[in-house]
Amino acid sequence: MLNGRVALVTGSTSGIGLAIADALAGQGADLVLNGFGEATAIETIRGGLAARHGVRVIHVAADMAKPAEIDSLIAAGERQFGRIDILVNNAGIQHTSPVESFPSDKWEQIIAINLSACFYTTRAVLPGMRGRGWGRIVNIASVHGLVASVDKSAYVAAKHGLIGLTRTVALETARSPVTCNAICPGWVLTPLVEQQIQARAERDGLTRDEAMTRLVSEKMPSGDPVVPAALGQLVVYLCSPAADQIRGAALPVDGAWTAQ
Question: Which of the residues are catalytic?
Fold first, then answer.
């Protein structure tokens, strides 16, 4: 379905971003990976995606908090492949603290990576998408783009802002073959969440599955976390012709968290 397309996925060397990259490559898209990590491990990921799906894959370790490096990331992808057709803004960081003690540097970093970076990448790829007559921008927001939680002021502010950016871009591209949407996951079964599950199991003397259900059920009535591969398949759907008129959506994947 995506043969001949080129996808850039930020924060794609692990977790949600890697699952999305894998899903897009599975549909034939060439990939620009982005993210930090140990060089040998990243090369294993890059080579594995290329071999498994028969696509071209490069990795660019841009710091998404730095606009100049974001520009270099986009330029590297266009230099290698000649285009960026699909942009998935996934890179993100988190820090928890009450507002009155929230560190200024953490606030600035979270806003930079979780929100401002999405503006800079979008601004860079839009002219090419318009010129070629096709494009897909998918912002990985969060359930925290729709509702708030305590001690997460910067993250909540950034994700609410990202949904606002999504809607603005959708309006500005509404008469074009470029779409922009946001996905808003709840708890996702990433390695970081798995660590929290294991910690709770050890603390409370529970099995891993019992701990997972208790942790997730605090917010998600379903009691089951989202698996990263499901988010990858949703991104693939948003890149399909069936999603041509899904524009400016903030799609919850949250086990009924925001239905409450």
Answer: 155
